[in-house]
From TrEMBL:
<dbReference type="GO" id="GO:0070126">
    <property type="term" value="P:mitochondrial translational termination"/>
</dbReference>
<dbReference type="Pfam" id="PF00472">
    <property type="entry name" value="RF-1"/>
</dbReference>
<protein>
    <recommendedName>
        <fullName>Prokaryotic-type class I peptide chain release factors domain-containing protein</fullName>
    </recommendedName>
</protein>
<dbReference type="GO" id="GO:0016150">
    <property type="term" value="F:translation release factor activity, codon nonspecific"/>
</dbReference>
<dbReference type="GO" id="GO:0004045">
    <property type="term" value="F:peptidyl-tRNA hydrolase activity"/>
</dbReference>
<feature type="domain" description="Prokaryotic-type class I peptide chain release factors">
    <location>
        <begin position="61"/>
        <end position="153"/>
    </location>
</feature>
<dbReference type="InterPro" id="IPR052104">
    <property type="entry name" value="Mito_Release_Factor_mL62"/>
</dbReference>
<dbReference type="GO" id="GO:0005762">
    <property type="term" value="C:mitochondrial large ribosomal subunit"/>
</dbReference>
<dbReference type="InterPro" id="IPR000352">
    <property type="entry name" value="Pep_chain_release_fac_I"/>
</dbReference>
Length: 171
């Protein structure tokens, strides 16, 4: 990061650099940029059902009928096609529709997702990676699937093996 980005007195530069470094450390220490919550508030039955849900979760687990898709013009270079064709896809899914489909242990992580539109209380995911609408729609659904899966893997702890339990007990 260039120091020219901070037009201030030279004595402030080290403080600003420290704050920038501290902020970087904070975000780097977060797993995948997703806030994790304490798993101590969930009992074994909740965690077991969440693990089962995660084992059965796939890209088709979220019904496509819950999502609203809209199209707009893509940005960036693209020649003659970019200004004429609405190829950018925007997927919008209300949290009120998504949260009943996932275990309660995931709700907090989805509420702090980078895709959250707070005023609409919905997840808004966009894709303009491809030139085709259909490819961008599929990319949006893939991003939604990855968001839910990464949130689940971040907060649902793995099952402790019997060997590990015995080792801890013998300590």
């Amino acid at each position: 990061m260039s120091m020219r980005a901070f037009p201030c007195h030279h004595t402030c530069r080290t403080a600003l650099l420290y704050l920038t470094t501290a902020a970087r450390r904070h975000f780097a220490s977060r797993k995948g940029g997703i806030n994790t919550i304490q798993t101590g508030q969930w009992d074994d039955a909740d965690l077991h059902s969440a693990r089962e849900w995660l084992a059965n979760f796939n890209a088709n687990s979220i019904p496509r009928g819950l999502c609203a898709i809209s199209f707009s013009r893509s940005s960036g270079p693209g020649g003659q096609n970019v200004n004429k064709v609405n190829s950018k896809a925007t997927l919008r899914i209300p949290l009120s529709s998504l949260l009943p489909l996932v275990p309660p242990i995931l709700h907090q992580n989805l509420r702090v997702s980078r895709y959250l539109a707070e005023r609409a209380d919905a997840l808004v995911i966009q894709s303009d990676e491809a030139r085709k609408q259909s490819a961008n729609v599929e990319a949006c659904y893939e991003k939604l699937y990855k968001l839910v899966e990464e949130s689940a893997r971040a907060v649902i702890p793995g099952e402790t093996s019997d060997d590990q339990k015995n080792r801890v007990k013998n300590l």
